[in-house]
Amino acid sequence: MLARRRQRKAEEEARIAELVAQYERSALLLFGPRPRSPGRHSTGELWWCKHYQWLKDSGYLLRSRYAPDWFPSWKTTNVSWVECEDRQGPLVEQVLDATRISDGAFVTLKLFKKSLHPFEIEIGQFFSTEPLLSDPANHCVPFYDVLVVPDDEDRAIIVMPLLRFFDNPPFDTFGEVVDFLRQIFVGLRFMHKHHVAHRDCLNLNIMMDATPLFVDPYHPQDLEMKRDYTGRVSYYTRTQRPPKYLFVDFGISRRYGPNDIAPLEDPIWGGDKTVPEFQQSNEPRNPFPTDVYYLGNMIRDSFLLAKTGFEFVEPLVKVMVQDDPEKRPNMDEVIVRFEGIIKQLNSWKLRSRVINEHDDNIFGFYRCVTHWARRFSFVIRRVSAIPTP
Question: Which Gene3D superfamilies match (predicted)?
Answer without folding.
Answer: Transferase(Phosphotransferase) domain 1 (1.10.510.10)
